[in-house]
Amino acid sequence: MPQVLKALLMVVKKILPLSSQEWFKVQELYNQYASENG
User: Is residue 4 within 8 Å of 30, Cβ to Cβ?
Assistant: First the structure.
């Protein structure tokens, strides 16, 4: 499994988003990961 996919799944599992606001938090955390890991 690609590392990028693992990172995204880790963030989703951490938050278990149900509302649009929680999905926004997933996006923020993933964008932070992507920024730090190129």
Answer: no
Beta carbons of 20 and 13 less than 8 angstroms apart? no
DSSP secondary structure of 2-36: -HHHHHHHHHHHHH---SHHHHHHHHHHHHHHHHH
Cα(35)–Cα(29) distance, rounded to whole angstroms? Answer: 10
Instruction: Report the interhelical angle of 3-15 vs 20-36 (nearest 10°).
Output: 140
Give 8-23 pLDDT, tens digit per residue: 998 999 889 889 999 9
